[in-house]
Design a protein that fits this description.
The complex is a heterodimer.
Chain A (H helix, E strand, L loop, with lengths): L1 H24 L4 H6 L5 H11 L5 H14 L13 H36 L4 H15 L2 H15 L11 H31 L2 H8 L4 H39 L4 H10 L3 H29 L1 H6 L1
Chain B lengths: L8 H23 L31 H37 L1 H15 L5 H10 L3 H27 L3 H8 L4 H12 L1 H24 L11 H8 L8 H28 L2 H4 L1
Classes of the chains: A mainly alpha, B mainly alpha.
Chain lengths: ~300, ~270
């Protein structure tokens, strides 16, 4: 566990360095972008000092990191210098609710589909399930979202178009975000189930005269779940990235919306902080998945 | 490779879609009914009809024209991004696997850092900082995309490096560069090719996503993602603006995924067992 946290920390520090270096290597003066090219030299100098752009990059990085950790970090635009962390604190739960909901939807769709396809391998059920899954992976979220809006919000009027006032607002965004994962997971579940169904313990269970259903769910399925756990952890990153697009489609007030607004306003402190919090979430989930895997599978625990 | 035949239905469909996509991109100016920057205010947001087969968008731009030209942007960006990230990733991964030691350690740490960013967040950040342009999108996608090839090439080199033909080449006095590029990497070509085939639809989707977010191609450039972005504002009055370019994109991605599946099955028959 200590080794895992160590490499997660290395990755995070690297990410912080990379993000800060990029902002410095960019040609052009950020002050130009913030104030416009016609601003006076006095104003530019004042802004540069106020935002700390007069310091060398490593000092800026130090100041940024310290402010981020202590919560003192403010938006880079002086007229409305507000603290960044409260904005992230408001947005983050929205993104987490969206990703977790879409993950649950994906699991609810993928597990039965994948198990059914594996249990009836080579039949029409298998073909339909895998055909749907191949198509589902190819659907871009920023297209599926509008299609769902047109059908369920504009034509049928069952659900709201956008916003985040109630659980009904969550349905379409979560479905949009979760469909690709559901399609991918269904394939993984099928492959994992087929592997498990070939094991000796399944043959033994069948020979004992257990019912096919018990063999399928109690013996094969429980063992097929293990490899899926790792996939789920890794796919969480794809979901976080996809959340940015999904949030834009549905005007969902999460981290993606915060990031895109900050990019538009050239508020680089918020951009940097948002990117890092996204990365922190992903690295944390991956580390936890590793740990959970070790806990569930004794073979892995002994090795690490 | 000589056994390679795309006998499956999916593979043939994928090949057809790929051919259609390349031809559309090449001949967009001949196929398109209008120039892409043509403004036609009276038919702004017009529904599909005789003048505009797939309807019109903001300022009366022709949706069909933008869908056809959009294939061009998508082809340019994805092919260059896949080629560049493949070149960098395979070279660095090969070197890491063959050299081992601290070189391997440093390169794999860099890969770890790049993989710590979820999804396309880093590519998004890079284009946001550098500004929207085709070159910047290619750079952003390559900067983040080489890690997959690097890991794969490294793994392949690690399994191949002690093979007899490599030892023979070493005994004959071949240097590390020759062994890596003439003996190891050509023998790892199959899996790397499959990786590239799957990376292509990924890059197509990434360009469209960045353009949808307003962080890809410059404003006004015909791109499927940008057109869907424009269309989402008019879902009630003009759903065709978002629907058609999105369908073109979904079809292209589907085709390349199927082609990749077929290629993998052909090159790695063990996979079929599963």
């Amino acid at each position: 566990m200590r080794r895992r946290i160590g490499s997660a920390a290395v990755a995070l520090v690297g990410a912080l360095l990379l993000v800060s270096l990029f902002l410095h290597l960019v040609p052009g003066d950020p002050v130009d972008v913030m104030l416009g090219e016609q601003a006076t030299e006095v104003d530019r100098e004042a802004l540069r000092r106020a935002v700390g752009l007069d310091l060398p990059w490593y000092s800026q990085l130090g100041v940024f990191s310290r402010q981020l950790v202590t919560g003192e970090l403010r938006t880079s635009l002086p007229p409305f210098q507000r603290k960044v962390l409260p904005a992230i604190g408001t947005a983050l739960p929205y993104t987490l609710v969206l990703t977790v909901a879409s993950m649950l939807i994906a699991l609810a769709l993928a597990l039965p589909l994948g198990v059914a396809a594996a249990a009836r391998r080579g039949t029409a059920v298998d073909a339909v399930a895998m055909g749907t899954s191949v198509a589902g992976v190819a659907l871009p979220r920023f297209w599926l979202g509008p299609v769902l809006i047109i059908v369920f919000a504009l034509k049928l009027d069952w659900l709201p178009v956008s916003g985040a006032e109630s659980w009904r607002h969550l349905v379409l965004p979560a479905l949009t975000l979760g469909t690709a994962l559901a399609a991918f997971l269904a394939r993984m579940t099928r492959a994992s189930m087929l592997e498990a169904l070939r094991e000796d313990y399944v043959t033994v269970a069948r020979a004992k005269g257990l019912s096919p259903r018990v063999v399928l769910w109690k013996h094969a399925f429980r063992n097929a779940l293990l490899p899926l756990l790792t996939v789920l952890g890794l796919e969480f990153g794809t979901l976080l990235g996809g959340a940015i697009v999904t949030e834009k489609v549905f005007a969902w007030p999460g981290m993606g919306t915060l990031l895109l607004t900050a990019i538009e306003k050239r508020d680089y402190n918020t951009v940097r902080a948002t990117v890092l919090v996204f990365t922190l979430c992903y690295v944390a989930v991956n580390t936890l998945t590793d740990a959970a895997y070790a806990r569930v599978d004794p073979r892995v625990r002994r090795r690490s | 490779m000589s056994r390679f035949r795309l006998s499956s239905w999916g593979g043939r469909f994928g090949l057809a879609v790929a051919a259609l996509w390349v031809l559309t991109a090449l001949f967009a100016p001949l196929l398109a009914p209008y120039p892409p920057d043509r403004v036609d205010l009276p038919s702004e947001l017009a529904s599909p009809g005789a003048a505009h087969v797939l309807g019109a968008g903001e300022n009366g731009i022709d949706v069909l024209t933008h869908v056809l030209y959009g294939a061009r942007v998508s082809l340019l960006v994805s092919v260059f991004a896949v080629a560049l990230s493949g070149l960098v990733g395979i070279t660095l991964g090969g070197i890491a696997g063959y050299a081992g030691g601290w070189v391997d350690e440093v390169l794999m740490r860099i890969v770890d850092v790049l993989l710590a960013f979820p999804g396309m967040l880093l590519a998004l950040f890079i284009t946001a900082v550098l500004g929207p342009s085709l070159a910047n999108v290619v750079f952003a996608l390559s900067f983040t995309g080489w890690t997959g090839y690097a890991r794969l090439a490294r793994g392949q080199v690690l399994t191949l490096r002690e093979r007899e033909y490599v030892q023979a080449a070493r005994a004959l006095g071949s240097g590390p560069g020759r062994i890596l590029f003439h003996h190891l990497l050509p023998n790892a070509a199959g899996p790397l090719l499959v990786q590239a085939t799957f990376a292509l639809p990924g890059a197509i989707l990434a360009e469209a996503s960045l353009s949808f977010l307003g962080l890809g191609v410059p404003p006004g450039t015909p791109s499927w993602g940008a057109l869907v972005d424009q269309g989402t504002q008019y879902l009630l009055v003009a759903p065709h603006v978002a629907l058609f370019p999105g369908a073109a994109l979904a079809l292209t991605v589907l085709g390349f995924n199927l082609l990749g599946d077929a290629l993998r099955d052909a090159l790695d028959p063990r996979h079929l067992e599963r």
